[in-house]
Amino acid sequence: MIKKIRKRSDYITWDEYFMGVAQLAGMRSKDPSSQVGACIVSEDNKILSMGYNGFPIGCSDDDFPWAREGEELETKYLYVTHSELNAILNYRGGSLEGAKLYVTLFPCNECAKAIIQSGIKTIVYGNDKYANTPAVIASKRMLDASGVRYYQYSPTGREITIQL
Ligand SMILES: O=c1[nH]c(=O)n([C@H]2C[C@H](O)[C@@H](COP(=O)(O)O)O2)cc1CO
Ligand SMILES: [Zn+2]
Question: pTM for the full model?
Answer without folding.
Answer: 0.96
